[in-house]
């Protein structure tokens, strides 16, 4: 088989890995494409963007319909920002909902359009700090009763399943941690 056709098979979205034989395999049950360099497999679709592209339009999902929030705007929350400048203090915050922090852009072959979709994260306004802090840069939780408004302690953080997992995987770094 020629090098060019083997390269094309390796770039195809339809190629998977057969763990029984430990060899690459076509998910369409095609043999590794072994025809002359001028012919192409009818099932070939590149797993990479190949240029030139013909773009028939842009689908902008930065709209009310494209930006659905998982959280109810206006809820009171307790928030413990991760930065050292906050001194491991818990603040009262107002949940603003999911707000965009970036955009995903992808090309869809079916309609030949660029699709722009917001990458969102919960945003919380902290009146005492006069700033918005995002969920990915803090520990936070909704306040549903007066008992909920207690400080988020290091014990609360250490009891989160993924923190436990990380501490089990990297015990030496746990000893260096200051609780944040």
Task: Summarize the topology.
Blueprint: H1 3-11, E1 15-18, E2 23-26, E3 57-60, E4 76-81, E5 91-108, E6 113-126, E7 131-134, E8 138-142, H2 154-158, H3 161-169, H4 171-176
Parallel strand pairs: 3-6
Antiparallel strand pairs: 1-2, 4-5, 4-8, 5-6, 6-7
Textual characterization of the structure:
This protein is α+β, with helices and mostly antiparallel strands and 180 residues long. The protein has four helices and eight strands. The strands form two sheets. Strands 3, 4, 5, 6, 7 and 8 form a six-stranded mixed beta sheet that branches. Strands 1-2 form a two-stranded antiparallel ribbon.
Share of residues in strands: 25-35%
How big is the Rg? 25 Å
User: What's the β-strand tally?
Assistant: 8
Secondary-structure element series: HEEEEEEEEHHH
User: What is the percent of helical residues?
Assistant: 10-25%
* Mean of pLDDT: 80
Give the CA-based shape: elongated
Tally of helical runs: 4
Q: From the helix content, strand content and strand pairing, which structural class follows?
A: alpha+beta
Ends: how far apart?
56 Å
User: How would a crystallographer describe the biggest sheet?
Assistant: 6 strands, mixed
User: Segments where pLDDT lies below 50 for 5+ residues?
Assistant: none
Which descriptors apply to this entry?
single chain, alpha+beta, 6-stranded mixed β-sheet, 180 residues, elongated, 16% helix, two-stranded antiparallel ribbon
Summarize, please.
The chain is of the alpha+beta class and 180 residues long. 16% of the residues lie in helices and 33% in strands.
